[in-house]
Design a protein that fits this description.
Pfam families: Acetyltransf_1
CATH topology: Aminopeptidase
Number of helices: 4
Oligomer: single chain
CATH superfamily: Gcn5-related N-acetyltransferase (GNAT)
CATH class: Alpha Beta
Strand order of the largest sheet: 1-2-3-4-5-9-6
Strand content: 35-45%
Protein name: GNAT family N-acetyltransferase
Organism: Peribacillus deserti
Distance between the termini: 24 Å
Radius of gyration: 15 Å
GO molecular function, one term: N-acetyltransferase activity
Keywords: Transferase
Structural class: alpha+beta
Number of domains: 1
CATH architecture: 3-Layer(aba) Sandwich
Number of strands: 9
Length: 154
């Protein structure tokens, strides 16, 4: 699938609540998502004309943080996430950012592998991060407790 098949539309603040349900695919706590929904830049993701998900970035100094990337289940496992990452790494490099960060749960084995394949390295661990969530989260038989933070130079 070529990059031309994936279309990103930057969303205005007034449009974001319509896309919050997509962000909940990747971050299960509505209160947490609502806490960052209006920050940074958010884009819808369309693949061959069909809405496939959303992505949200926040910024601090020369660092861009991938706060949430969510693809519908039928769009996963096809190399689309890899293309999306490649596009935004290049995009924010051109914008002058020096580093990209992303965090995922200690239980998100697939995400941990994905980010390392995309050139990210573990930078730190935020202990007990997921204990603030309203309900306990389990993936791969592991409770999400800590957030593993990754970073890569742009």
């Amino acid at each position: 699938m070529g990059q031309g098949d994936i279309i990103f539309k930057k969303l205005g603040l007034h449009e974001r609540t319509d896309y919050a349900k997509y962000l909940l695919l990747a971050d299960e706590d509505e209160n947490i998502v609502n806490g960052y929904l209006l920050e940074g830049e958010m884009f819808s993701i369309r693949i061959q004309g069909k809405l496939a998900g959303a992505i949200l970035f926040v910024f601090q100094d020369e660092t861009v943080e991938l706060k949430n990337i969510a693809l519908l289940p039928e769009s996963r496992g096809k190399g689309i996430g890899k293309e999306i990452m490649r596009f935004f790494i290049q995009h924010y490099r051109k914008e002058g950012y020096l580093k990209m960060e992303v965090g995922t749960a200690n239980s998100s084995i697939g995400n941990i592998a994905f980010y390392q394949k995309a050139g990210f390295r573990i930078s730190r661990i935020v202990k007990d991060f997921f204990l603030q969530y309203g309900e306990r989260i389990f993936e791969n038989g592991i409770q999400a407790v800590d957030m593993i933070m990754f970073e890569r130079k742009l």
